[in-house]
Specification:
The complex is a heterodimer of chains A (about 375) and B (about 450).
Chain A: H1 2-6, H2 8-27, H3 44-53, H4 70-73, H5 75-85, H6 88-95, H7 98-102, H8 149-153, H9 164-170, E1 185-189, H10 191-199, E2 207-210, H11 230-236, E3 241-245, H12 256-273, E4 278-282, H13 289-294, H14 300-311, E5 319-322, H15 325-328, H16 351-359
Parallel strand pairs in A: 1-2, 1-3, 3-4, 4-5
Helix pairs in contact in A: 2-3, 5-6, 9-14, 12-14
Chain B: H1 7-23, H2 29-44, H3 49-69, H4 77-107, H5 117-132, H6 142-150, H7 152-155, H8 176-210, H9 217-248, H10 266-272, H11 275-286, H12 296-314, H13 318-344, H14 348-365, H15 369-379, H16 381-384, H17 394-413, H18 415-423, H19 428-448
Helix pairs in contact in B: 1-2, 2-6, 3-4, 3-5, 3-6, 4-5, 8-9, 8-17, 8-19, 9-14, 9-15, 9-17, 11-12, 12-13, 13-14
Classes of the chains: A alpha/beta (about 375), B mainly alpha (about 450).
């Protein structure tokens, strides 16, 4: 009792600190299993705070135990746990795209005719896998291989699709358009798209649903600072074009498979909600060379691998893949250092390049 | 480098160190602080720890030589001469070390500047000079001297404590009351750093991300004020943490900031901002040069020299020289006539300080002179045209996102507010509020550090 009078703050901090440590310890192999944890540098209580930051709250330990609580937070958390618990490839099979792969075996040949259908694609027109004519939409490609456990652990986005998707998408001849083309456009994206909104006049034409730190896993849940969800937006208005650029924030999470799975779901959902709209899958903008060379996660090899994946979604009829990196990168394929200060975002004035690029990559109905 | 606002320091180094420091008998406290400080520094600077140790040995040697010549009832002329010449040798040597490392950092690689060298060399210089100035009354032991130079609360960013302020001749008796008081200061400082300065730092980063040519004039001003608050709470917060740690360890509190933004002139501002640096330049450069005595041209020269040196001390860019030059210029003008003018009009001094200081911080912040020019053309658009791709609405977004930090920051700039909190440290409400501040800070530190999934948001 004497102590609480003499040093109340010290006692309060010690008490709460021990309590938070206990929570961290209890949840370490439970709700916080998805977190990387190095006991030498990090106190156990940091697990709890990081959890809160990820929308995982301490009381979830109570309903935790054997049932995976992670499912509450996001699909990706789920994957991490299973990969941690079991052997890597099994964990990924469960959560990843293994359902598709099972039919395909190990030879992993890619061919348009070989493309696999995913559930949820019912909405897409003519699933006939047969021949390629100019009119037929391209089939989705299957990956060449699976991500390895090592790649997962080291946050390496495996290039499991190769550039086949990118090459076929690039065969499409886009039309030049003017600004009024964007009058019925919806732009969805992270802070990069915020830049496009704030520093070009595209926001006078299209609608922007963008938010800093948006990930593909949150696209359909996000309410964009009170504006409402994407679903609300699509209900309230008929959009002719939907532009997506999401993918840099989740680079350190999960595998290319997880990203691709979530991306595919989003694209299919958008098609279902707005069947007439053209969907523009935009390649994730790269980072500058200095950043790319020094960052184990936010580097261009990871970005390219994920771009190669989403490019395979293009059918060149309703879904198109466009790559703004063509106009903002240097010869080495890194974001031009002169166009950026923080090595990640375009300086305000250079968003104009992006806008010009979009004007040169329109799709007009014939 | 291990910084105070890191999980490693808060939950690894500090608890272990404090546990040992409190557990050992009083006579071993100094040794444990010395050992702890060396470990603290060596973790961040495994190579340059040698420079620190070497400088400590050399300075102790010189100090002792000077001390020996000062013993006795009467000090002879030759002794005085010898003492002065030894002191000058030591100071020249220390200054040379600092200059060599600064040059290495400028011309070779910036990683060659040992952490905290600007601070510990200044301590060493003051140590030598204080023998002559008669401010060191009892013979310092080697352990005391080494603790003074290397002590981890001050090694990275000061405050530049004087030897006699450390009260080294007394054994350190620690008490729970002192622990509590120091902890309260530490938590206040941590909160200023993690909850205010680090949040406002994102605003400044955003302005750089957008590019200065594209920010609206109101946003440019918001940025200048935001940076002024950021720097203040970063540095004041750090100083409070440092002094809080000292108090916990049984040493006196060293004041480094005294509500500078409430000043009425630039010279007053710099008597209240980073006070230990200002008084260092006053005592070891300005006054030895003649100070404010003598004729006006001499005073102007002394002031100009002090402020150019202050500029050089702060960093390697040319902008720091401009920054020091501008401050020197205004302080000279104040000395000549501006000071008297400002005193005559009520509130004029406050407005002058609050308008001018943020502009000088902009000069301080932007090392690229071309970009600095662009920023000023956005602050004063009649000078530089309309900018490129400016979003005129940007102030609304940023005002809403950062408004809360400005409000809290401005409230804390009012001297009475901090004094009120300081006075009521023991009040249960304050205690709970401080605990909340601590854990909120830890929340931000945990979620932004060391988490590969969350460490950046784009």
């Amino acid at each position: 009792m004497e102590y609480i009078k003499k040093c109340p703050l010290f006692i309060v901090l010690m008490g709460t600190g021990l309590f938070f440590t206990l929570i961290g310890m209890l949840g370490k192999s439970n709700i916080y299993a998805g977190q990387e944890y190095d006991p030498v540098t990090t106190p156990a209580l940091a697990l709890m705070f990081r959890g809160v930051n990820d929308d995982i709250y301490p009381w979830q330990i109570l309903d935790g135990g054997s049932t995976p609580v992670m499912a509450v937070s996001s699909g990706q958390k789920d994957t991490e746990t299973s990969a941690e618990d079991g052997t890597g490839s099994e964990g990924q099979k469960e959560a990843g795209i293994s359902a598709q792969n099972d039919g395909q075996g190990e030879n992993g040949t890619v061919g348009e005719n070989d493309g696999q259908k995913k559930p949820g694609e019912e909405a897409s027109p003519s699933p006939s896998p047969a021949q390629e004519t100019d009119d037929a939409p391209l089939e989705r490609l299957a990956p060449l291989r699976e991500s390895t456990h090592d790649e997962y652990l080291n946050h390496i986005s495996a290039d499991i699709y190769g550039d086949a998707g990118v090459r076929r998408a690039a065969a499409y001849e886009f039309d030049k358009v003017d600004e009024s083309y964007f009058d019925d456009a919806l732009f969805i994206g992270d802070s990069r798209t915020v830049g496009l909104r704030d520093y070009t006049d595209l926001s006078d034409h299209g609608d922007f649903y963008c938010e800093t730190s948006l990930t593909i896993h949150k696209v359909m849940e996000e309410d964009f600072g009170g504006k409402g969800t994407i679903e609300d937006a699509l209900e309230n208005r008929d959009y002719g074009k939907i532009y997506l650029m999401v993918g840099i924030n989740e680079l350190g999470r999960g595998t290319t498979e997880n990203y691709m799975e979530a991306y595919t779901e989003v694209v299919d959902k958008l098609r279902e909600l707005e069947p007439e709209a053209k969907i523009f899958v935009q390649a994730v903008m790269r980072v500058s060379g200095e950043k790319s060379d020094s960052d184990a996660i936010f580097n261009n090899s990871n970005i390219n691998a994920r771009n190669n994946a989403i490019a395979t979604l293009a059918d060149n009829r309703q879904i198109f893949y466009i790559d703004v990196n063509e106009v903002v990168c240097d010869e080495e394929g890194n974001l031009n250092a002169e166009y950026t200060h923080d090595k990640i975002h375009l300086l305000g004035m250079y968003n104009e390049l992006w806008k010009e690029f979009l004007l040169a990559h329109g799709v007009l109905n014939d | 480098m291990v910084s105070f606002s890191s999980l490693e320091f808060l939950f690894r180094f500090l608890p272990v160190f404090l546990g040992i420091y409190f557990a050992v008998p009083a006579k071993y406290r100094e040794s444990s602080l010395l050992l702890g400080s060396i470990i603290f520094y060596a973790v961040g600077e495994p190579v340059f720890i040698l420079a620190l140790i070497l400088c400590t040995l050399v300075n102790y040697y010189f100090g002792m030589e000077i001390w020996k010549l000062g013993i006795g009832f009467e000090i002879h002329g030759w002794q005085k001469k010898k003492r002065n010449s030894l002191m000058i040798q030591a100071v020249v040597l220390d200054t040379a070390v600092l200059i060599v490392f600064k040059c290495l950092a400028v011309f070779v690689d910036s990683s060659l500047l040992p952490v905290g060298i600007s601070f510990y060399i200044f301590k060493m210089i003051s140590f030598q000079a204080d023998f002559i100035r008669g401010e060191i009354w009892s013979k310092p032991s080697f352990r005391q001297t080494a603790v003074y130079f290397t002590m981890f609360p001050q090694i990275v960013q000061g405050p530049i404590m004087r030897y006699h302020e450390g009260d080294f001749e007394h054994e350190k008796h620690v008490s729970l009351e002192q622990l509590e008081e120091g902890l309260a200061y530490f938590v206040m400082g941590l909160g200023m750093k993690a909850l205010l300065a680090d949040r406002l730092a994102i605003l400044w980063k955003d302005l750089q991300m957008i590019g200065f040519q594209s920010i609206s004039t109101p946003l440019a001003w918001l940025g200048a004020f935001g940076y002024s608050l950021q720097l203040y709470f970063d540095f004041w917060g750090y100083s409070l943490m440092a002094s809080g740690l000292l108090v916990m360890l049984g040493y006196p509190f060293v004041e480094n900031f005294n509500h500078p933004y409430a000043s009425r002139s630039i010279s007053e501002f710099y008597r209240r901002w980073h006070m230990t640096l200002g008084s260092w330049f006053r005592d070891y450069v300005y006054i030895p040069m003649g100070g404010s005595r003598g004729r006006k041209p001499r005073i102007v020269f002394n002031l100009a020299l002090v402020w150019i040196l202050t500029g050089l001390w702060h960093g390697n860019g040319f902008n720091y020289l401009i920054w020091g030059g501008i401050l020197g210029l205004f302080i000279i003008l104040e000395k000549l006539f501006l000071g008297n003018m400002l005193k005559k009009i009520p509130a004029a001094g406050n407005i002058y300080v609050l308008a001018l200081i943020p502009l000088t911080w902009v000069v301080f912040a932007i090392t690229d002179l071309k970009k600095l020019g662009i920023y000023f053309s956005r602050l004063f658009p009649f000078m530089g045209g309309p900018g490129i791709a400016v979003n005129q609405q940007d102030i609304i977004t940023y005002g809403m996102n950062y408004g809360i930090y400005f409000i809290v920051g401005i409230v804390l700039c009012i001297p009475a507010v901090f004094k009120f909190v300081d006075k009521h440290k023991k009040n249960p409400i304050t205690v709970l509020a401080l605990a909340l501040v601590f854990w909120a800070s830890v929340y931000f530190l945990s979620s932004s550090a060391g988490n590969p999934f969350m460490y950046l948001n784009f």
